[in-house]
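[job 0412] stage=complex_fold ligand=2-acetamido-2-deoxy-beta-D-glucopyranose status=START
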Amino acid sequence: MKLAYAVLLLPTTLYAQILGADSDIDQLVAQMDTSEKYSIVNGVGWISRKQQSGYYIGNEPAVDRLGIPSIKMQDAAQGFRTTDERIIGEVTAWPCSLGVASAWDVDLMEDWGHALGKEHRAKGANMILGPSVNVHRVAKGGRNAEYLSGESPKLGEEMARSYVRGVQEEGVMAVVKHFALNNQENDRNTIDSHADERTMQEVYYPPFKAAVDEGVASFMCSYNLVNGTHSCGNEDLLVRDLKERMGFEGFVMSDWWAVNEVGYQNAGLDMDMPGDDGYFSSDNLDASDDGRIDDMVTRVLTQMKKVGLLGTDDQPAAFPNLCDIPGDCDDLFYNATATSAAHEALALSIATQSVALLKNEDDVLPISGAKTIAVVGSACDASNNISAMLKVWDLGNYYVMGGSGRVIAEDPVSIVRGLQEGAGDTITIVESTTDDLDQALAAMENADVVLTCGATTSTEGHDRASLLVDQDDFITQLVEAATIPSVVLLNTPGATVISNFSGKASAVLNMFLGGQATGTAWSNIIYGVESPSGKLPVTFPLSEEDAVEPCSSSPCTYDEKLEVGWRGLVEKDVDFPFGHGLSYTNFDYEVKSKDGLKFELNVENTGKSAGREVVQLYVTYPVAEDAPPVELKGFKKTGVLEPGQSELLEFDISPDDLRSWSTNAGDFVAVSGDFQFDFASSSRDVRVSDTVTV
Ligand SMILES: *[C@@H]1O[C@H](CO)[C@@H](O)[C@H](O)[C@H]1NC(C)=O
Ligand SMILES: *[C@@H]1O[C@H](CO)[C@@H](O)[C@H](O)[C@H]1NC(C)=O
Ligand SMILES: *[C@@H]1O[C@H](CO)[C@@H](O)[C@H](O)[C@H]1NC(C)=O
Ligand SMILES: *[C@@H]1O[C@H](CO)[C@@H](O)[C@H](O)[C@H]1NC(C)=O
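[job 0412] stage=complex_fold status=DONE, emitting structure tokens
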């Protein structure tokens, strides 16, 4: 494009100046007519809440005349959403996002991001409706399985960054969601969340801010209200907090049908999804503030260009467009195989590394040598009823969650099948896969050890009714009656109360909903092919009363303020604390050097088998009336360490991480004094402490 031509056509809008948008995009926008501009900010492909054939879950049409490809969006939480029966088996059914996060491995999360990006692209999509990053406030939250922050803003920051980087390097735009204070599913369209500014800034915003810093293309505003106003029409939230304070240059899209009134574009919303509600009709968009439409379109096109979806006359797009809706994408969408042997292996590796060993009395695990194992309980042979799931969009099971995050697995490996396949010649398995106690006891008669399984699932739209696993009674009776060591394997969608049986069981392990490789991953852990190295990103409390319940009326006031999740339980006994996860080996920690806020910590494997450790840094602020409670400020995972081997981990804490939000200043401000640094194996297992004066 010629410069003179551009100057003639370019309206110098206020918004373009704020953005400092690049001139290619300015020129492109200048060439668009009003209807083309409007078409890019309002979704297509849905009529009266029904998805039309030939379209993805979210769609923006192409502007062929100007070489702008269509935007094709698909969920997210466990991979490429199986909205059509034909897609099942063509895509990987990954562990849930919380499971990926529970490996506490930023590189693994980035690998997953790349794999997700590749599968979306193979299916013709160029936008993924993830990551979901809300910090868990309510233990029963129906979508906690997809919220990769667990109970920690810091875990969320690190995981959000890795996810966004991995996905976007594959030419797929990421959407961080759901902004903001979308902490429960019950009454999600009407609940009005009230949190003070400091709580929002210190607890709930950091994972979102990290995504902004990583260059995430889009934000999805949530169904709920914040301070009395729906998120998608909340100017304080979208303009002041997000675009001005966090400096977000991408675009805000609504959650599906989360627009409730006309005029939200003037409160910071850039795109109405899925677009069949009429709120972004031409008439309504005609009533936009000056320059606002160009700002909205510029934001969308800038992000498309950034991830490589837009070419110029001189340079083709790094990720050329593969197809356009409607219809032209059908072969990719319905027929293309996006999964691969490499992705199947990665799904298994992630599921294996996501397992947290909560308890292992007398080293009952791993199981090796000549043994007879009884495998008892219905959850060890969990069903995967595809036709039932295809009929009910929010039906989950013990492999995948329900709702928009669901990826139906074609043939997930059950626990008992995984254990049989991994047993080898010397191990005999006797199974009884019902919850009948007598049959279980019969199966245990000649066994050396009994393995039983507990699970539950969750979905969006409503919260869990209980924190117990569905087999709580059976497992409790079984471990009570067992005269041989008992091992309990859990597949869960978030925090779980297992105190009825955790005391009596010899060993307990947790894997969040594990996707297609569930049973094989369990086999890797149970037989010691790999030592467990996951850590709980949430607390397993002693009882439901210790956890925050979903609000049943509005306003929903966040009275606990900063004391969210584990930080609200530091004075209480818990069953298994945040950050907890044992290994088959042992690790010693030693501070090797200290320079300001920079530490080098040596971790040595002092046990008898190979393993990996996640070292966590907890920081206690100087004593002051308004000091925040103890907080996770960093973590590092070692590589696989052989017995006797050690690794030097570097913790380089930025002074910015030790600040605290001042509502008066409207910003984070420095805190000075003595900070206690605890290097720990869990939030309640501190190994080395030091004091740092700032
Ligand atoms: C919500 O209300 C609190 C307390 O009044 C206020 O400090 C904060 O700025 C508000 N935030 C938003 C996004 O409205
Ligand atoms: C998908 O593949 C089938 C079988 O090869 C073929 O009949 C069908 O036309 C393909 N669908 C599309 C939309 O191309
Ligand atoms: C699967 O679910 C359907 C209900 O949609 C039911 O009729 C069928 O019996 C179930 N199949 C199995 C194997 O449980
Ligand atoms: C298990 O725990 C729940 C909730 O704490 C309790 O209501 C129930 O009675 C317990 N069941 C058994 C068998 O102890």
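The longest strand covers residues 587-595.
[job 0412] exit 0
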